[in-house]
Amino acid sequence: MSPLRKQEVWQGTLALMVLKTLESLGPLHGYGIARRIEQTSADLLAINQGTLYPVLLKLEQTGAIAAQWGTSENNRKAKFYSLTKVGQRQLAAESRDWQSTTAIIARFFQKPEPEK
Fold first, then answer.
1. Short-list 60, 49, 54, 51, CA closest to 22
2. CATH (residue range 14-107)
3. Is 5 left (phi over 0), alpha (psi -120 to 50) or beta?
4. pTM as predicted
5. How far apart are CA 42 and CA 54, in angstroms?
6. Domain coordinates of the chain in residue numbers?
7. Per-residue pLDDT tens for 67-81?
8. d(C-alpha 1, C-alpha 68), whole Å
């Protein structure tokens, strides 16, 4: 049995995970978002800061999230991100698409039923 190693996040799924995290927990700074995603994955995903921040910027530019400067729990200046109405609609649409896609892929791993 091979040892567990952290997986890279599939392209296109990090934005969905960010939106879902903000929906669940409310406003968070980037480091908090990354840690929560890793925690939710049982530490099987590795969130690279160089990947996360461009996604946050893109989500902010499209209006899916809003950013506001505040103070972190470590008493440091940090940018806190929150979900907007646009982001809620995007999350709902992407969640439906993801569930549909994974249901299709799952069919390929099911044991075929014997033909009659």
1. 60
2. 1.10.10.10
3. beta
4. 0.84
5. 24
6. 14-107
7. 999 998 889 999 999
8. 46
Give the type of residue at 64: A
Higher pLDDT, 7 or 23: 23
Where residue 113 falls among pLDDT bands split at 50, 70, 90? confident
Neighbours of 31 (CB within 10 A): 15
Q: Residue 89: is it exposed, middle or buried by C-beta count within 10 angstroms (0-12/13-18/19+)? A: exposed
End-to-end CA distance of the chain: 38
Alpha carbon distance 66, 94 (integer Å): 19
Long-range contacts of 37-44 (CB under 8 A, 24+ apart): 37/9, 43/6, 44/4, 44/6, 44/7
